[in-house]
Amino acid sequence: MRPARFSKALTAGLAVGALALTACGAGGDDATNGGDSGAEGGTEAGTGSASDANVNIGMFAVPANLDYTTTGGAAVFEALLYNVYEGLVRLDADGEVQPLLAESWEISDDGTEYTFQLQEGVTFHDGTEFNADIVKFSLERLDEWSANTPEMLSAVESVEVVDDHEVTVMLSEPDYDALFWLAGPLGTMFAPDSVDDLATEANGTGPFEFVTYENAVRMELARNDDYWGEAAGVAGVELTYFEDASAAANAIRTGGVDAILRSEAFDQFESFEAEEDIEVHVGSSQGVVVMSMNQEHEALAEPEVRRAIHTAIDKEAVLAAATAGYGEILGGPSVPTDPYFTDFSGTYEYDPAAAEEMLASAGAEDVSLTFNVPNRSYAEASAQVIQDNLEDVGIEVDLQTQEFPAVWVEENMVNQDFDLAIINHVEPRNMANYANPDYYWGYDSAQAQDLFDQAAAATDDDEYVSTMEELTEVIVEDSPGAWLYNPPNVGLTTEGISGLPLNDLGVGIDLSDVTVSE
Amino acid sequence: MLLNALRRLGIFALTVVVASVVVFFLLGILPGDPARAQLGLQASEEDVQALREQLGVDRALPVRYLEWITGFFTGDMGISYASRSPVAPQVLDALQVTLLLVLGGIGVAILIALPLGILAAVRHHRPDGTLFSTISQLGISIPNFLAGLLLIAVFAVTLGWLPSGGWAPPEAGVDFLRHLALPALALGLVNGAILARYTRAAVLEVMREDFMRTARAKGLKPGAALMRHGLRNALVPVVTVTSIEFANLIIGAVVIETVFVIPGLGSTLIRAVANRDLVMIQSIVMCVVILVLLANLLVDLVRPLIDPRLRNAS
Fold this sequence. Notes:
Helix content of chain B: over 70%
Shape of chain A: globular
Oligomer: heterodimer
Number of helices of chain B: 13
CATH architecture of the largest domain in chain B: Orthogonal Bundle
Largest sheet of chain B: none
Number of strands of chain B: 0
CATH class of the largest domain in chain B: Mainly Alpha
Distance between the termini of chain B: 8 Å
Number of strands of chain A: 21
Number of helices of chain A: 13
Structural class of chain A: alpha+beta
Order of helices and strands of chain B: HHHHHHHHHHHHH
């Protein structure tokens, strides 16, 4: 055998190897089968009626476990609340409080007694009957919560069982927001026998039963056929968890998932919008991306300097860098879905010349600031724009990237060791933190605290809204931070998928209205 | 021979113990609080402290080390801070996935390296030999995550032949192979290219040996001489490099798992670091350390079997 033929044999071997590899693919070039892990759970659009369909939804933020009473972050309750778990009330798509396990309620004139009439004939998925005792058990258990802001319902003092289907929740002081918080994770109704296994099991009264959660990979929910209300539109939901926005984008393009929620692949939305079989839905979130200014710093203690910094930031450029322009420019601490939202985007309009004058009039010279930035792309992109903007008006900025959450939270929220610090505050109705002088941004205004208490004590909507509007104005005037933008809530759906909520209201993602057509 | 094997085992055991101490105490000084990582941004300091006590992270490091290491070697790796369930099954599941991926990667690497390397050697100084060398040089310069992204773009998104990510267990048969193909290819391409260069060098070296000339003189054709006398000699350095590459492949798998959304050790480790799930991190890192050491041990023990001369060397 001559060398030439020997090499031919090897070349042929290589070719066979290559063929063998592609053969794996040739077996299934049907894109709808190209599912992700557990392709069985994928949509089988076109086979059977809509109600037999399953839907596979790509999600980000991965639940560490299933217990949102002791695990922070929205990932867990977003998946379970309104689907597996329910509370007395819920938020509808417009953010209004609506009945759920309570069919109606009355509030005493002094705003301290909430009497709920409960739905009858409701059972938990394990068969436990839902009644007034469950309400008492669940709300009095708030003391045992350590995550997801149980202090927001600290006004709940006790729960009195009137009869099987009527309970009165007693507040120690009036709290206008109590119903709002009861509509969120804090209002979840738990069966007493289930609370020991909250991290691994989920037993609720909702339209879906919890089937399984493969840690950080996927969660499966199945329609509860004995649901007390209107049955869910799909037979099953599979939530597939991604840690990388591009991986999720590839999955929806290849049929691995039918929809994606909370997508942050901002650079790809334009190309998705051009694709016929994928729809892009841009809603709003509860997020406020805010750059806090620590008043312990000599220059930042001066309100005029903080306002100057606010004025020096080109928020359009920040938005373009952080989200490719999706989302709303803020200027104030409230978000568009808040009932008291006021548009402050024009209050500190970008004007470097004016900012320089303000700095000069405040006597701020040679200001040098450290800026703590979590290692998240939106924050790093925003911080770079802000650094440029501030250097244009003569403020030197030293960017410090810190791992989020572990290091950033410790350094900034706990140790308060920062001059500037940026973060997306995703928790809804965040205004309470401006009435708390111990919060990391250290905003201590007696006027703001009074107004907040006054709003909490309000018993009618108009009074609440007008007081909260007044409060936001005070906060914006004092500028303890620069409120940059409200990130968009972007969902992507493939053809035939509808009924996913557009806005992120900081509660559960209601999947019961999702349908698959064709 | 036996003495040598025992000596190797002794070194292996000692390295494992030293590695466990280093891993544990390095993680001990990692900034960030596991309790706060669990409870989130808004948690009160009292709740964080209570959880710290509950998790036991407020105790002295040496106490925690002894508890962990005795547990680790008796199969009880503790309870994950994040998932609140036992660490061992989670690590073993992820380990199985990563091992399959790495073995797939090694398979791809060898399939590429042997033919390419031998061809490049046999045909050196000829245009096609130079072409094979260039191909392997090109392969070395592509980072494996980029290879992964390119493979996804071509075979999943454009052609739609293979899934863009995810994982199926081996029981799933064809579905398993479909999910394994792209990540194994991404992982194996670069290492295959590196291995091809070593193979080429080793074969070239062997071809210059006296015994090869003798074999030719006895009337064997070049191909037959290489197959019968040359390859076995050329394999020794190739096997050694493969074991070193094994460590690289495990580290490469960390990145590839993220690109392909594969629930292996890498993605589990990254998440555990973000959650400051210390027991999970320690156990995963230890598993990787042991795997790499085992691979090296295996090669040390296997090499004398390939090359009898090594049996007497020590």
